[in-house]
Amino acid sequence: MIDGPPAVERSVLRRLRTAFGQTNTGKYLATKSGSAKVMAGFSRGFWVAVAADVIRSGPWRSAFKNPLPTTPREQSEIAITSFWMHLHPATVSRKSLKFSVTYGLGGLSAGLFAMLLITGIMLMFYYVPATDHAYKDMVDLQSAVSLGKILRNMHRWAAHLMVIVVSLHMLRVFTQKAYKAPRQFNWVIGVVLLVLTMMLSFTGYLLPWDQLALWAITVGTNMAGAIPIVGEKVRYVLLGGPTVDQATLIRFYVLHVIVLPVVIMLIMVFHFWRVRKDGFSGGLENGK
Ligand code: HEM
Question: Domains in the chain, start-ordered, CATH in brackets?
Fold first, then answer.
């Protein structure tokens, strides 16, 4: 006598039976291997037996540790405990979930960042960070590549929008006093995110290597050069030399496509985790 299948298998087999209309799967369940059933031809029962073998296998068991939810109650329990409760703090006031509290500005900032990542990766297929290539690559992208112009503009518009939306998000946190205890640290993390967003924008500005880019970066780095005592050194480190040149372009490129996005992503995850841990402020009344 072979023991009945464990809960995981029972649940999957129940579903299979429903799907295949198979009523006499009992004998297949009692069989260790479905291979004997190959002899019976490729009937529905055969496929049920094969599926039974698959769900008894080690890889399947290690992938699905819990039985599949079979009732609407089990399904909603999974949605609530695994997703909803994880996404939101353990308790939230009804008021803090209102759109007029956050205006969705934090989520929008994250959405724009995701859009910048996707369009940025696509731009990297065409762009070469070399002084004799960069400008030509951008012109070619817009004139010779299908949807190239919209791709470039989506990246630019999303970049401009992100600066605006992150600033508005900061303004809403400030006006609603959401920076007060216990959220002071998340405010500090937010300030770091704002600075990094500006840096992402600044480093991206040089990449088209047109006149606007060259002079904007010249002016920007000259401003850094005006910092007392260390200014000249900071300017030199930023440019990779005395003037805006190939060394500057590759520096800004690496910062723009690798260093800053990775750092922003890590800090963003930390920011979201703090939002969840600190709880939602719930707007003016609770943000004492
Ligand atoms: C890349 C930039 C940023 C992203 C993606 C981001 C994302 C978010 C999200 C999704 C939330 C929760 C929902 C919401 O309040 O809209 C939030 C809350 C918060 N953010 Fe940001 N944020 C960013 C920048 C900032 C900045 C610049 C500050 C302030 C200097 C800041 C401070 C806060 C604070 C204090 C909260 C908690 C607000 C509350 O509980 O009402 N964040 N952020």
Answer: 102-279 (1.20.810.10)
